[in-house]
Amino acid sequence: MRMVRVEPCDPREPDAAAMMARLSGALAAITGDGGMASFDPSDVLVPRSLFVLARDGEGAAIGCGAYRPLEGDMAEIKRMYAEQGCGAALLAKLERAASADGYRQVCLSTRKINERATAFYRRHGYLPIAPYGRYAGRKESICLGKALIEAI
After folding, report:
1. Residues paired with 55 in a beta bridge
2. Which of 11, 28, 125, 130 has CA atoms 20 to 30 A from the CA of 118?
3. Superfamily of structural domain 5-147
C-alpha cells in the first residue's frame, strides 16, 4: 500500500491552491463547472473547520478536502479531490476531525453527473438527504449525508 499523509493546511498556500485548481479542472471536464463559486477559502479558516492536503511518500500533494460549519452539529464537506487512490484516507481524516470538533453529521453536495464521486461517497456510508442551502431546487445536484461515530 502506498504511503499517504493527510495533514492540515492553510487553503491559501500554493500546494493547496494548486490542488484546488486541479479539482476545478476535473470538475469542469465532468460537469462544465469548476465549482469554485461554492467555496471561499475563508470558510475553512474559522473555528470548527479544517482544510487538509494528502501527500505521497515524496511529499507531493495528491489530494485535498475540507469541512466547514453548516448548522448545529452538522459540517459540510467541500473541495474533496483525490489522486493516486488517496480518497478514503482523506475522507477518513475529515470525518475523524469533524467528530473531534463536535459534529455528529457531515453532508455534501455533488453533481449527479459526477457518478464516480457519488459512488465513492455511497461506498463510504453516505446516503441521499434533502437538498440544503444553495443546493435546494437544483436538479443537477445530489446532497448526501452521514452520521459520524463519536470521537473516543
Report:
1. 5, 61
2. 11
3. Gcn5-related N-acetyltransferase (GNAT) (3.40.630.30)
